[in-house]
Amino acid sequence: MDGTAVAMMVESRATNPVLSMIEASTGPRSDLSPTPATVVATHNPFPHGHHRPDSTPSHSETFPAGGSCDPPGVVNPIEVFCWTAQSRRRNLVVPPLAAMEGTTMRTRRIGDAEVSAIGLGAMPMSIEGRPDEARSIATIHAALDAGVTLVDTADAYHSYAGEVGHNESLIARALAGYGGDTTGVLIATKGGHLRPGDGSWTVNGSPAYLEQACDASLKRLGVDAIGLYQFHRPDPKVPFADSIGALRDLLDAGKIRMVGISNVSPEQIRQANEILGGRLASVQNQFSPAVRDSEAALRLCAELGIAFLPWSPLGGRSVAGVLGTRFAAFAEIARAHEVSPQRVCLAWLLAKGPAVIPIPGSTRPETIRDSAAAAELALSAGELARLDAS
């Protein structure tokens, strides 16, 4: 997606009874300091590839300047209070790391691949405001520990003109240094979007460029074939059929295993699937409580057996941090389940059908663990109806 990662949920001290209880026994938590991330440096091969769409990342959190949310290691679930320079924080109940390692998550399908029901959107690890590499790698490893087997990236996820493919290279290093098995991880990347380095996003859907971009992504990811290669955004200057035809050629040549498209209409979904001979594997469109205009695309994907990957599933930076305020039903249901509104949001999206696989972004281990836990959150029919109506 293009642009900005999502902000953290803000919760006031006065409305946080758990914080009050902790402070009563331990004192105010304003002295919380981050714990350095640990990166496992052993090598492990990986076979696939992954991505995210246009300029707004499908990301579950971005911390304002001055915030910290790295808890000390513990053996029981912990209440994590993420403080910002303005003394704001997102409240998460996160399973301890030891409890997450080796976790198997509920799965869904993209083409012939079985992947976790919640993916990881890696875009915010490489664009403006990105964290340092150690924290990014720790976040990717935390996602894998939590059972995430879908990682979304793109060659356009970078900040400066001279670092095209920054996100893909980061993911390759993270997977190579992971201490566990990565053979089941699907890396989904994209081509067709460009960042000249001036903050803008441009497009190039020409067949020659897409082939060149795919070859470069193959090298950065260190794979023989990209697991899922997605056309990032239609180019108004290039016939859509020509762009999709280029992806068909890459598929037939064995350079990619599956084809996806992003930021498209139902008509374009049908056209792409026809050009590909029924082999379109995924569609990635924006979908969140704030943006629901892809309902028709979602229904069509379900009808055709195509995976639907919502990008910016929490609404982007302007919405995610105030999700529970702007959409009160999400906060109310979150309180009833004693989870974050963000987790409720992802569970709501999952309930829209087995074709849906949200890809929330993250730049911290705690938030991707919270997002991954949405796969186990069951919402009642009544709760889902309230969320649909909110």
Automatic annotation (TrEMBL):
It comes from the Bacteria. Residues 41-70 are annotated as: Disordered. GO terms for molecular function: oxidoreductase activity. GO terms for cellular component: cytoplasm. Keywords: Oxidoreductase. Residues 118-389 form the NADP-dependent oxidoreductase domain. It holds the Pfam family Aldo_ket_red. PANTHER family: AFLATOXIN B1 ALDEHYDE REDUCTASE, ALDO-KETO REDUCTASE YAKC [NADP(+)]. This is NADP-dependent oxidoreductase domain-containing protein. It comes from Amycolatopsis taiwanensis. The lineage of its organism: Bacteria, Bacillati, Actinomycetota, Actinomycetes, Pseudonocardiales.
